[in-house]
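cache lookup: miss for this entity combination. No prior model stored, computing from scratch. Input as submitted by user K.M.:
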Amino acid sequence: MNLELVLTYAIAISLLVGAIFALVGAIGLLKFNDSMTRLHAPTKVGTVGIGAFLLASMIHSFTFSEGSFHELLIMAFLFVTAPISANFIAKVNIHCRSCDTPPSPPRDDTWSTLNVPEADRALAADAKSTAKS
Amino acid sequence: MAKAYRWLLPHPLLTILLAVVWTLLQNEISAGMVVFGIILGIIIPWGTAAWWPDTPQAFHPTRLIRYILIVLWDIMVANVEVAWIVLTKPNAKLRPAWIVVPLDLRQPEAITMLAGTITLTPGTVSADLSDEGHSLLVHVLHTEDPEAVRDDIKHRYERRLKEIFA
């Protein structure tokens, strides 16, 4: 059993692991019925799923060609940007009241998403009443 | 002298990081590209200094590496746990919960890192910060004991981040 064969198996296993986690993420996205719980499914795909794919790509490039470190960069950029999009979706959910209202914070007045400035409150109430009628 | 240094290099670590990223983007190490990376690493922090005025006073890169390794391990463990929940728990038995984490951290950089870590570990998503920045709102996919999750976040991540930025 030579090194190339072992590494080929390693690539195959990484691809399989990535595919399984991507599949589980997709199942989660379909299965959960609440916007907040649904948000948990893509975070899985974004970390281990893509991480395993990139690992496979990296092993492949080191085995069969010159080798590449771009995958590390993809991973780093992904890890920095993924929480921000998740945070934005969560903020929209809170803002649209499409989830349970969160408990109020112990030391401060309210959560920053729910903190509507005084001047905008009348505007928000207006929009709500026109939406009702 | 120190003032000139701070004016030219507002974020020395960002300079190093940008140079390394630029070199990695080239996928081969050549002297010209390293020099160009360093030039970029000086120009970009200098040009964007207005949007990042307060550099963290203290920062320990070695502790950061330890922290990253712990987080990567946690991500893998939590991934398997959450995959198990997705595949086996019926929706009716799912116990999602809001968790309020009181923050001891004050630096914005540290809070950002904590929030990012919480989102990256599957099963928890950081959703919001309170208006004065004293607590973090976290959503948990499934838990029987919300207090334990909160204490886990505080002991495992926040304590270590406090050491990195102390």
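stored under new cache key. Residues 3-31 of chain A form the longest helix (29 residues).
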